[in-house]
Amino acid sequence: MPTIYADLHLHTVLSACAEVEMIAPLIVRRARELGLNLLAVTDHNAAANCAGVIAAAEGTGLVVIPGMEMTTAEELHLLCLFETVEQALTWQGIVFDHLPDAPNNENLFGGQYVVDGEGDYIRTEGRLLAASTDLSLDASVRRVTELGGLAVPAHIDRASFSLFASLGFVPPGLPVPALEIFRRTDPAALVAAHPEVAPYPLVRDSDAHQLSEMRVSLAFEANAPSFAALRSSLAQRSHRLM
């Protein structure tokens, strides 16, 4: 079977912390230059730019997974990956209901822009997306799973917004398909230091906020790139980190 090259964590201009170059056509072009076949769009607490990147990738051979990087009540980041835009937008609606009703301060945090497949401006998201929701980790994982998605705790060993920073450990029996480790982490060293990580498949992603940070992060064999193929590879631990 062909090898699928993937990256499951990427931000667009809908994330205030992303560079202005992170628009759909440039993201897709860079992904193809890198040889990526599967890419997840995961903006902070929002999914409105997924459709634009999917549109830009049409006919290129790049498959785009709609998703989000949400912030739970514990102030940790959770990758929420879905098969369809509809699922991702349903989850966005739920997340918005659990965010504080506060406006984004563009001068302080940066702009949050919804753009189309050509990279053209549609609107500014006025809601503060850099906030934490009041949804717990357990509730978030359960609800993402119920929607048919994959809930993957992000960069679990990073110094902030992570399982280890917020909780200090991986909760026993946490029902997630994988754990994402920081891109510079040695997996073997992490497992040696934290044996509770061992039962979980590990992924490592770019968490790109600018085009130069994009990279091939993991690989697996499948007939074609797809959400279903990713789910299967994680379940079988047949993927490998790049």
Structural class designation:
alpha/beta
Helix percent band:
25-40%
Oligomer: single chain
The radius of gyration is 17 Å
* Widest sheet: strand ordering: 7-4-3-2-1-10-11
CATH topology: TIM Barrel
- Give the full name of the CATH homologous superfamily: Metal-dependent hydrolases
Major pleated sheet: 7 strands, mixed
**Count of structural domains:** 1
Give the tags:
28% helix; TIM Barrel; single chain; 7-stranded mixed β-sheet; 242 residues; alpha/beta
Can you offer a commentary on this structure?
The mean pLDDT is 97. By secondary structure, the chain is of the alpha/beta class. The protein starts with a strand and ends with a strand. The protein has helices spanning 24-34, 50-57, 85-97, 106-109, 137-146, 163-166, 187-193, 227-236, and strands at residues 3-7, 38-41, 63-71, 77-81, 113-115, 121-124, 150-153, 179-181, 202-204, 218-221, 240-241. It is 28% helix and 19% strand. The protein has a single domain (3-241), classed as Alpha-Beta Barrel (TIM Barrel), CATH 3.20.20.
